UniProtKB/TrEMBL annotation:
UniProt name for this protein: SDR family oxidoreductase
Annotated keywords: Oxidoreductase
Keyword Oxidoreductase tagged: yes
CDD domains xref list: SDR_c (cd05233)
Species of origin: Ilyomonas limi
Family classification: Belongs to the short-chain dehydrogenases/reductases (SDR) family.
One GO cellular component, as annotated: membrane
Cited Pfam families: adh_short
């Protein structure tokens, strides 16, 4: 299979890419992140560990429409079709509507919503023609409920959930599955410096394992939502 994962140089995206790369079937992974050096390091290490996989990577700022479209073109030149798209790239900036900096919402919407919207639209024609595929959208529990310091981030994640739900309805008839993923707190760089005990929150592999499993069900079954929380609940 050909599997696209955005924001794959660390955190959840890297864990998801790693999980598919580890598959004995030997998939092709098409990955991106902004920082080329870190992306190169991550993918070189992954390729060395999983020689069956074919790992391709390209730097891309998914908050910029032109860059997203170039990334999509690159994907379509590398592979004849995309089987799985994981719209994971995203950024968490805490804030409150009343006092977050001007432009915070634009930044969060560009990074957390338009990234997924533009990439999906560019890849969909091929998937619709093939009448198969699976799109995962990395939402958050911040898509489901408001919480202190949610601000523009939470608004953008609510919007991503709306995108995912609409896509699910549209794509049923094309045999393309859509899954909204709602993780609670998961140990990544997003939590670095927070002082949170890593044992209190989830591991990236918890989320990666669920996505991997959801992608191998029978064609007639679609996991519409994956909602995961730390065992002791939200922080
Ligand atoms: N960790 C959690 O608790 C949690 C919970 C719920 C949902 N999520 C969601 O899960 C996703 C991944 O979060 P994470 O915690 O794994 O974050 P992370 O550790 O900070 O990793 C983010 C990844 O995305 C890339 N990225 C960030 N902005 C990008 C952009 N504009 N274009 C392309 N790549 C970009 C980063 O690389 P570069 O910086 O080099 O671009 C990195 O590879 C996000 O959508 C986040 O909202 C996380």
């Amino acid at each position: 299979m050909n599997i696209v994962v955005t924001g794959a140089s660390k955190g959840l995206g890297l864990a998801i890419a790693d999980k598919f790369a580890d598959d004995r079937q030997g998939h092709t992974l098409l990955l991106c992140a902004r920082n080329e050096q870190r992306l190169h390091l991550a993918t070189t290490y992954m390729q060395a560990r999983y020689p069956r996989a074919r790992i391709l990577a390209r730097a891309c700022d998914m908050s910029k429409k032109e860059a997203v479209l170039q990334f999509a073109d690159w994907i379509l030149h590398k592979v004849d079709k995309t089987d799985i798209v994981v719209n994971n790239a995203g950024q968490f900036v805490p804030g409150s509507v009343h006092n977050e900096p001007d432009g915070a919402l634009e930044q969060m919407i560009n990074t957390n919503l338009y990234s997924a919207y533009h990439l999906t639209r560019a890849l969909l024609p091929g998937m619709m023609a093939a009448k198969e595929g699976h799109i995962f959208n990395m939402c958050s529990i911040a898509s489901l409920q408001a919480y202190p310091n949610g601000g523009a981030y939470s608004i953008s994640k609510f919007a991503l959930m709306g995108f995912s739900k609409n896509l699910r309805e549209e794509l049923k008839q094309y045999n393309i599955k859509v899954t909204a993923v709602y993780p609670g707190a998961t140990m990544t760089d997003s939590w670095s410096g927070s002082g949170v005990d890593p044992q209190r929150i989830m591991k990236v592999s918890d989320v990666a394992n669920m996505i991997y499993t959801a992608s191998f069900l029978s064609p007639q079954a679609c996991v519409e939502e994956i909602l995961l929380r730390p065992q002791l609940g939200d922080l």
